Write a sequence for this structure.
């Protein structure tokens, strides 16, 4: 079971930026970010494969960028032009095969992102 530890969450004003990081204990085929807002189900945000293929939710395309450092086994999420609706707990996830949302089975503890309007 891969261990995932997120960092980088916090409070930011609307229009601002934050960068999330996720350190993994082992390499996996793909890694991704999900988020869960209060009273809502967890939703997919972005994913990246070992080779660098990326996939984004429509709600974050053009504002968020997912990347990974394979040498450091670290995942990043650069979030720009943040909106109040981006407020959520953000979870790092890993998959041993595939990069569809259903493929992710390992999860971090989550980091809170709060965007004030």
């Amino acid at each position: 079971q891969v261990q995932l530890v997120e960092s980088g969450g916090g409070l930011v004003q609307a229009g601002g930026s934050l960068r999330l990081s996720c350190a993994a204990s082992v390499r996996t085929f793909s890694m991704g970010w999900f988020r869960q807002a209060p009273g809502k189900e967890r939703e997919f945000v972005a994913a990246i494969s070992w080779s660098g293929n990326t996939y984004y939710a429509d709600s974050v395309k053009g504002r968020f960028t997912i990347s990974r450092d394979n040498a450091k086994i670290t995942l990043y999420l650069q979030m720009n032009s943040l909106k109040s609706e981006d407020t959520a707990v953000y979870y790092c996830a890993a998959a041993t095969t595939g990069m569809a949302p259903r493929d992710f089975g390992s999860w971090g503890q989550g980091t809170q992102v709060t965007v004030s309007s």
Notes: The mean pLDDT is 96. Residues 37 and 88 are 4 Å apart (CA to CA). The longest strand covers residues 88-95. DSSP finds no helices and eleven strands in the chain.
